[in-house]
Design a protein that fits this description.
InterPro entries: AAA+_ATPase, ABC_transporter-like_ATP-bd, ABC_transporter-like_CS, ABC_transporter_ATP-bind, P-loop_NTPase
CATH architecture: 3-Layer(aba) Sandwich
Strand order of the largest sheet: 5-6-7-3-8-9
CATH class: Alpha Beta
Keywords: ATP-binding, Nucleotide-binding, Transport
Protein name: ABC transporter ATP-binding protein
CATH topology: Rossmann fold
Radius of gyration: 19 Å
CATH superfamily: P-loop containing nucleotide triphosphate hydrolases
Number of helices: 9
Largest sheet: 6 strands, mixed
Number of domains: 1
GO molecular function: ATP binding
Strand content: 15-25%
Bound molecules: adenosine-5'-triphosphate, magnesium ion
Structural class: alpha/beta
Family: Belongs to the ABC transporter superfamily.
Amino acid sequence: MAGPMTLDTTGNKAPPAGQAGTPMAARAAGPDAARTGSDGAAVSARRLSLVYQTADQPVHALQDVDIDIRPGDFVSLIGPSGCGKTTLLRVIADLEQPTGGSITVAGRTPDEARRDRAYGYVFQAPALMPWRTVERNVMLPLELARRPKAERQAIVREKLALVGLDGFARKYPWQLSGGMQQRASIARALSFAPELLLMDEPFGALDEITRDHLNLALNALWRQTGLTCVFVTHSIAEAVFLSTRIIVMSPRPGKILEEITCDLPAERTLEMRESAEFQRVAALVRAGLAKGHSYD
Ligand SMILES: Nc1ncnc2c1ncn2[C@@H]1O[C@H](COP(=O)(O)OP(=O)(O)OP(=O)(O)O)[C@@H](O)[C@H]1O
Ligand SMILES: [Mg+2]
């Protein structure tokens, strides 16, 4: 990859407004606490269910899902294909309406959270516009919100630095590697300085080496900003590498089978994957998945 290897190179750059240098634990109790629920949860769901109505028969995508995600958590959702991971992310983002149960996002309804731009969403495919440069892609949500030009430019500069793309603002997406395109889409998702970043298998299509770099970069970004992250993956190693907590889901209808805490130090290194603690957590995730017969 021609681009910067990790986000550590941007360690001296300013993080998003309102989050500068604030330790994660302090964010929960600090001014941002007002933006979380009364119980302090970034995302809280009770008995959440979703049934898709289709032409032939209803599809039970989620059933009785209870989750509590704390501010500053990095939570991975892992489970077999079709178990409802994307559906759960889309419910948090107000892109789908649950058919049962309740959910709050930063203490608000998902609809209010969406209007308040409380979250950013990163899709599996970067979905960048090929006729816009990287900076103009990242700027698009700010243009649509009619933010003044000088403010837009300052925000885009800051976000591109945060994802290690400072030198690539004037390139077109097709001039970037797949990993750099995903960095650009993460920068775009951060344009309104959200408190919550939702990511749906953002690195699923990348080769292993690029994925390792992006995992390191995302870990650095999470540490720098104090963001709450909800991350969907099929990879046990990626889930353990990135997360403070891993939620294992069952085959459809998606239920929560296990919640596994990962107490590795906040700063993750590739070498940690060889450690006994990493292997222990990975084995717990593997056992959780096996409970749902997900390897059938
Ligand atoms: N709009 C829809 N209408 C009907 N059924 C849907 C719709 N979206 C998803 N489904 C079904 O709901 C179930 C859960 O889908 P979802 O996309 O949430 O799974 P997933 O865990 O993200 O899978 P993958 O790992 O393959 O991305 C699947 O059976 C899927 O076919
Ligand atoms: Mg999916």
